[in-house]
Amino acid sequence: MSRTSAASGAAGTADVRGATAYGLARTAPPRPRSRHRRGVGFIVGRVLLYLMLAALLIPVLFPVYYVFVGTLMEPRELSTFPPRLLPTGVHFENVQGALAAVPLLRMYTNSLVMAGIITVCQLFTSALAAYAFVFLRFRGSAVIFALFLSTLMVPAEATFIPNYLTLTGWGLGDTYAGLVLPFLAYAFGTFLLRQSFKQFPRELYDAARIDGMGHLRFLWTILLPLSKPALTAVGMYVFITSWNMYFWPLIITRSTEMQTLQIGLNSLKAGEAANPGLVLAGAALSVIPTLALVVFGQRFIVRGLTAGAIK
């Protein structure tokens, strides 16, 4: 009797162990593949992928590299064939010559003022419009938003002549007001901020309203601080677009005191074509702000542009 009980107990223990092992085998997560199991093919594939990406990166970065390197070269180094890729020394004569040929510092200031005012005003108007489309209930909001977006299909050049006639009729030609007034509001920034605001929990908005918080206070103290990536992305996009603007400043300004940097670069290119070092120096000065924004704020651009893309 005791032998039978022991045998049955041993069989039960073995069954339990087997069932436990079977259960663990079924419930255990799959083990990650080790690097050794990936094999040589995986490593070779990665190396080839990085080499291909590096090869595609060269045509993009080489013009920017040569602009800065050519700025530091002497004129004779720029005219050699094959072209030199490294300067023999650091020479600032091209920068000094470019600043002497055209009032680039004044134009630099005009571009900064114009791009800064347009960026701040577009952030302000876009935030207010996006807040209204997301949090305020009013009849026809979807139709109004569709009309708002339809303005993106109108080319900016089509509005230049009416804007020019209106602003010069008001006596605002060749002024900062004339440079910035047509661009204080834009549908693209409203669209991006609206997509970001739609991700905000509606319960928090309702709780704030029940506590007596007004619309402007909720927007300023809660919503905007939590939407910094989207605001940064919109601000950087607007600043870069305004900084590179050429046609509108060209037709609304007449004096060199009010012209922007892009017009100065074109004047430098036309007047100093025999000395490419001066043109490269002007281009290097113009690309520094936008390059700094892209390098230090690219993560905000990606996060801001993808806000609202995934729910």
Unreliable sequence segments: 1-16, 18-26
What does the average pLDDT come to? 82
Evaluate the radius of gyration. 31 Å
State the end-to-end distance: 67 Å
* Principal-axes shape call: flat
Number of helices: 15
Strand content: under 5%
The count of strands amounts to 0
Secondary-structure content class = mainly alpha
SSE ordering: HHHHHHHHHHHHHHH
Q: Please summarize the sheet with the most strands.
A: none
Helix content: over 70%
Give a structural overview:
This protein has 311 residues and is an all-alpha fold. It has 15 helices and no strands. It has helices at 2-27, 35-71, 75-78, 93-101, 104-135, 141-150, 160-169, 176-180, 187-197, 202-210, 215-226, 228-243, 247-252, 261-271, 276-305. The protein is flat, with a radius of gyration of 31 Å. It starts with a helix and ends in a 6-residue tail after the last helix. The model is unreliable at 1-16 and 18-26 (pLDDT under 50).
